[in-house]
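Data availability (excerpt). The following record was deposited with the supplementary files.
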Amino acid sequence: MELFQLRYFLTVARYENFSKAAEELHVSQPSVSKAVKLLETELGSALFERKGKRIELNNAGRALQERLKGIIGALDNLPNEMRVASGAKESTIVFNVLATSSLLPDILSKFKKEQPLINFHLIQKNAVTKFDLCITATLPDILPSNGTLVLGEDIKLAVPLASPLSMCESVDLRDLKQERFLMLNKNYRLRAIMSHFFDLCGYSPNIAFESDNPHTLRDLVEAGLGVSLWPELSWGKIQRHKAKLIHIRNPVCRRNIFVTWPENKEMSPEVKTFLRFLKSYFKDLQYEQSRA
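Predicted structure:
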């Protein structure tokens, strides 16, 4: 068996979908299907249950998936270990984080496992121009020229289960003038996006509490102290026995997450590596949330 067959299998196993695996691997779907079929033949065992157009890992597939995770991870880390052994120098990426800061610990910990020699200098400043990469949020109709879209997400309404709104499947933001809103502080990019939605409705929200921490807002919603606008993917789930996320049907409440970089500045190999990682990270996040 070939190493690429094992990598193809792991990608298909993660998505349980040949098309999505082929898209990530940048190869054709028939190539992925053929590689997995050859692997099954060599192992003498089917790895997936095929149910029409859908596939699912079977017991043998799950066992192989678990066995390979550590092996492939160790192989992938060999270049880093060799660089360390040969005395390679560390490098630092200046990363300006203006959005999805709640995901930052997960992003950096996963990346550092792959690239232990790359460090970060983190900043959170709107006006700064000296950085390597910046993660920022925009309204859907705003497209930065020097950036790449990594995530588009709905913004929903988080309400405590004790609220009558929890019985609704969707709400019109124009009908919520009397609600007590829990909001981010004014210096956050997302606060400006949220304010735009209220401007479309013709009123300023009744703000009961402001915070610079999404986790604090979630705790306050779950405690029944108000409602909040909630980016569905990047802020994560809330406890269903305490609160609920509701679709906002009017106006359309969405935002885009972009990774941008300074114009007329050449990216270092390390920055390019981190940019590729971010694209993959947010693609996986969107897929995992769709299956939850």
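Summary of structural features: The chain has a mean pLDDT of 88.
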